[in-house]
Write a structure and sequence with these properties.
2 helices; 241 residues; Elongation Factor Tu (Ef-tu), domain 3; mainly beta; six-stranded mixed β-sheet; 2 domains
Length: 241
């Protein structure tokens, strides 16, 4: 792979509008004696995104962003970025499900005053079963035990072999409900299907799961500015290798 991957700064997740969708590209044909097209087989599924950034006041705000996008050199390099509306699973975004921090057994707290948080989808989990390229099930452990609907259709997660964020995208979407058993394990159907063989122990990331994206062309993220504000948007598509 040519090009460098840069992570989009999380402090800039101030989007006024966004789209982040899984798109499907299929091979179509027109059968003899029929007017409608048919899809013969699935070719590829990939995430595509459009972002509209919140206007920034003054050069002190927008010129840093302008310089950051210059690093991408148009569509030469790559960026790691999340869906701004799905940075954490749905279960954690529902207020009624948010667990209360708990102290240690002796009643003390961490030095910063915070405590343990148990019962939510964790930031990181692990695969407990392997799967082959093309399989559609992910078996994930290290989750809270015996919870119905802990994972929901539309939740995103990132697969990181050996816990390392790679240079190609490994973002996946749950398309079925995931309930955990008494061991904290859940099996969910995913799309796209596994793009490679995976093994037990690989890391699963639920907090800020990121895709590796590439700007669709060199005209993206050009900042429009006046004396007071600078604003921009950009479109990108997943880089899967």
């Amino acid at each position: 792979m040519a090009g460098t991957v840069f992570e989009y700064p999380r402090g800039w997740y101030e989007f006024t509008a966004s789209k982040f969708q899984l798109r499907t590209v299929g091979l179509t044909y027109r059968p003899v004696f029929r007017q409608t097209q048919k899809t013969s087989r699935l070719i590829e599924q990939f995430f595509a995104a459009d972002y509209v950034q919140k206007p920034s006041r003054g050069p002190s705000s927008w010129q840093e962003k302008e310089a950051w996008f210059a690093l991408l050199e148009g569509d030469t390099n790559y960026l790691r970025i999340s869906d701004p509306l799905r940075c954490v699973p749905l279960y954690n975004r529902i207020k009624a499900n948010r667990p209360q921090p708990q102290p240690f057994g002796d009643g003390t707290w961490f030095t910063d005053g915070t405590g343990w948080v148990d019962g939510a989808v964790p930031e990181f989990a692990t695969l407990t079963a392997g799967a082959l390229r093309g399989d559609e099930w992910a078996t994930i452990g290290g989750l809270p035990e015996s919870i119905t609907g802990l994972l929901n259709p539309g939740d995103l997660f990132e697969h990181r072999p050996d816990g390392i964020a790679g240079a190609v995208s490994r973002l996946y979407q749950c398309v079925s409900m995931g309930h955990t058993n008494e061991d904290g394990v859940s099996a969910v159907k995913i799309r796209p299907r596994w793009r490679e063989n995976v093994v037990p122990g690989d890391q699963i990331v639920f907090a800020y799961p990121q895709a590796v994206m590439q700007l669709i062309d060199s005209e993206q993220a050009m900042i429009s500015r006046d004396a007071n504000y600078g604003s921009f948007g950009f479109s990108c598509a997943e880089h899967t290798g």
